[in-house]
């Protein structure tokens, strides 16, 4: 099998850096490709990100290395970020060596019934990702491209689930942000990014809020083909003033919860994550102390795993709304 990406042509069996044998292909992007490799010296499997020979991409790779160097002081496992090993040059390509993880959150969701997750999994995933953002903030780094595709499940068979944040290709120091910088992915960008305003770490919290909704429903909260579509949907849903109440009838998404109390607490958290004013958006530290993560909540309002209930505790539904079956956007308007 040969994988060609513009100026890259790599096939299974190719040796990268002299001793990393390509065993498979894990993904691709505007930067190049990610390969699964075996270190022929240690027999250890790793993920190698091979950047294309494009000058602009190479410059971006150098910036990613600078960011990763800043993160070396953090404990990758404790901070829920991918372990970066080192980098090497192969020909004209910059190659980044990372620990090998299992599968991205998009694929993990796709493998599940109804393409969404139960509260028993959503809670630890959000807690771990918030933990990652908290530690990134401690060293002044904005990830700038948080989405399910950049969140990896360490081992899909491990319980409780563990996730790590990957891909720092668009990450930047908060102190060097320039208004209008092109960061993020359509559908996950914060409003201030889409309109070209100055931004900071708060854009990652907005993205995490959208990821949370997608985990719960199986659908993107603000779908769109481009920033204009998404921004239009946000304004229609939330209005322009930062303190506008969320209220929209334009979505067909409904969620069903095992207990209304859990739903209300979850929705209150999402509302704070998706505050239009970044200065009013909830911070990682505040999220970690939010009632949604209170152990007593799950005890007082138990919610069993969907795999054992056929998904009845939390599913996407087309049925008319009832007390236990509320449109997600509409439920944001409830106090």
Automatic annotation (TrEMBL):
Top-level lineage group: Eukaryota
UniProt GO molecular function: ATP binding; protein serine/threonine kinase activity; protein tyrosine kinase activity
Family, similarity comment: Belongs to the protein kinase superfamily.
UniProt signal peptide: none
Domain Protein kinase: 20-293
Binding sites annotated in the UniProt record for ATP: 49
Residue numbers spanned by region Disordered: 299-335
InterPro entries recorded: Kinase-like_dom_sf, Prot_kinase_dom, Protein_kinase_ATP_BS, Ser/Thr_kinase_AS, Ser_Thr_dual-spec_kinase
Key words of the record: ATP-binding, Kinase, Nucleotide-binding, Serine/threonine-protein kinase, Transferase
Name of the protein this chain belongs to: Protein kinase domain-containing protein
UniProt cross-references to Pfam families, sorted A to Z: Pkinase (PF00069)
A GO CC annotation given for this chain: nucleus
